């Protein structure tokens, strides 16, 4: 029987899934020197037929995840990234370090013990049914998660089979989506507590979005006011969460961080009530060090150590110059890139990293030149970091509905205009300083695809196909009251262009381009901001680098 026929037959006869649902578990060390099983990560090895079935189910589930999952969860959801929650967390910690008002805040970094392995099957099925998914889909998922036969691989040998009674498997394409949907039930619980004014979330600015929790799969951070009343509410939510999902909070690894205006007595009382360890540094979150002070070389030491570790492994290799260059471009350039997406590197640290590349056979000017200009085609690290900051700046302008964008726009008072007012602020966070530094490089490439013509300025914005700014090519100075007019204001009641009063201001080429463009209409799509540095209008790091 072919693969496709077998998968279709499984939809009709679910018992066939049981026949292929045998799993081998191998243990991968988390640390170099393993002394206990807790330091091993179980990875499941599946039958190819089974993995294709779960991949199909996961692909179907992925299409509707964005509408089902709240903005607080950024894992395995289309159009959301890990960096979303990293930026929000950095901004929260920055505000907590500078907070001087009466009410204090606390951030609790929750560590869940074996989160996937403890998840209750019954809770998964109830969640899928409550969402309203088709019964056939729910039954197929239930057959996949509840009928496995497992065996451990130990020193290359297969041990005795056993059957689990709960948990989902690492490496199963379906597992992350099921876990995220179950975690969404927790967010609903917290949201209800917030609506009833029991849970008091934090706001980084007056009128800004309330923040009560952030999650990336099982990486969970809770935010609230620092008071004993909140301890009771949070503990109740955690108890319901753990009881329903079968989870367990690790008291040893969970950390609680307080804003600077919380007294020592209150800190001790709250941390003792929770049983969590108090800390002055939350360490890493999603692979990036959370900076509690100004960003310096000491804070970014882990990035430098990773680069050094990779370089040291080269000492035993006989690499040619070409091989060294290839590895430098493909590997070493990628190590700092993840941190670069959310952290604006100091110049001194960039120079230190650049020196570690150890490509000394050419002058830096030739190394950075494109290959078609007889250079080596390497990218300058400072400019790459700036491109990532440009991406953040572009997202703030073009995607105002994102949670982290709302947090920053409200915190730094950017206004509600279509193009926000991005300005340097005193005592701003590192990320905001990087965004402000990139603003001047982004602004000339903000362009528009005109829909109804409202909010798109006729003279100042780049809305023509050539991305020409009409104010820059005007034959005579444009009066102040004309400069602020929108494209929709130059349309007659019949929906035609009305340009007679400004005909003398436009050069011939611009005039023909305007009248050759379709007039805006309320019947078409809304105005869409596009990236003028790319023919497709989509922002990319490559196109941003080419504009600098």
TrEMBL record:
A Pfam family: RVT_1
Domain Reverse transcriptase per the UniProt entry, residue ranges: 9-290
UniProt cross-references to InterPro entries, sorted A to Z: DNA/RNA_pol_sf, RT_dom
PROSITE patterns: RT_POL
PANTHER family linked: NON-LTR RETROELEMENT REVERSE TRANSCRIPTASE-LIKE PROTEIN, REVERSE TRANSCRIPTASE ZINC-BINDING DOMAIN-CONTAINING PROTEIN-RELATED-RELATED
Name the record gives this protein: Retrovirus-related Pol polyprotein LINE-1
Organism for this UniProt entry: Cajanus cajan
């Amino acid at each position: 029987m072919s693969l496709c026929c077998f998968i279709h037959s499984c939809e009709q006869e679910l018992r066939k899934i049981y026949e292929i649902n045998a799993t081998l578990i191998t243990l991968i060390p988390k640390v170099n020197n393993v002394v206990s099983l807790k330091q091993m990560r179980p990875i499941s090895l599946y039958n190819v037929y089974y993995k294709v079935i779960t991949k199909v189910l996961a692909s179907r589930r992925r299409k509707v995840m964005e509408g089902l999952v709240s903005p607080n969860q950024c894992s395995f959801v289309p159009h959301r990234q890990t960096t979303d929650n990293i930026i929000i967390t950095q901004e929260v910690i920055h505000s907590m370090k500078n907070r001087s008002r009466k009410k204090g805040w606390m951030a609790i970094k929750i560590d869940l013990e074996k989160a996937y392995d403890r998840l209750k099957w019954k809770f998964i099925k109830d969640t899928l049914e409550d969402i309203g998914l088709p019964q056939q889909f729910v039954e197929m998922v239930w057959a996949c998660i509840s009928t496995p036969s497992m065996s451990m691989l130990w020193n290359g040998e297969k041990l005795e089979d056993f059957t689990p009674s709960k948990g989902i498997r690492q490496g199963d394409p379906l597992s992350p989506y099921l876990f995220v949907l179950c975690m969404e039930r927790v967010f609903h619980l917290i949201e209800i507590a917030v609506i009833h004014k029991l849970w008091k979330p934090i706001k980084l600015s007056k009128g800004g979005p309330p923040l009560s929790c952030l999650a990336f799969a099982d990486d969970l951070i809770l935010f609230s006011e620092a008071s004993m009343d909140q301890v009771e509410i949070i503990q109740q939510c955690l108890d319901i969460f753990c009881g329903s999902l079968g989870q367990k909070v690790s008291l040893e690894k969970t950390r609680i961080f307080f804003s600077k205006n919380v007294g020592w007595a209150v800190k001790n009382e709250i941390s003792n009530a929770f049983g969590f360890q108090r800390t002055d540094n939350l360490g890493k979150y999603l692979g990036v060090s959370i900076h509690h002070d100004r960003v310096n070389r000491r804070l970014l030491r882990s990035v430098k150590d990773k680069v050094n570790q990779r370089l040291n492994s080269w000492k035993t290799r006989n690499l040619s110059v070409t091989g060294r260059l290839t590895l430098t471009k493909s590997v070493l350039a990628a190590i700092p890139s993840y941190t670069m997406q959310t952290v604006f590197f100091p110049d001194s640290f960039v120079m230190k990293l650049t020196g570690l590349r150890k490509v000394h056979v050419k002058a830096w000017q030739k190394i950075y030149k494109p290959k078609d200009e007889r250079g080596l085609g390497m990218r300058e690290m400072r400019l790459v970091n700036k491109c990532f900051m440009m991406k953040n700046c572009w997202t703030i302008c073009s995607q105002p509905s994102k949670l982290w964008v709302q947090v920053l726009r409200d915190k730094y008072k950017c206004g509600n205009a279509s193009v926000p007012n991005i300005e340097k602020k005193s005592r701003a966070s590192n990320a905001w300083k990087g965004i402000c530094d990139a603003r001047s490089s982004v602004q000339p490439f903000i362009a528009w695809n005109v829909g109804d013509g409202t909010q798109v300025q006729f003279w100042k914005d780049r809305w023509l196909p050539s991305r020409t700014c009409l104010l820059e090519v005007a034959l005579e100075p444009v009066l102040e009251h004309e400069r602020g007019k929108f494209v929709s204001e130059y349309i007659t009641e019949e929906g035609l262009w009305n340009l007679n009063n400004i005909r003398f201001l436009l050069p011939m080429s611009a005039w023909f381009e305007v009248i050759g463009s379709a007039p805006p209409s309320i019947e078409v799509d809304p105005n869409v901001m596009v990236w003028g540095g790319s023919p497709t209008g989509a922002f990319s790091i490559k196109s941003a680098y080419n504009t600098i």
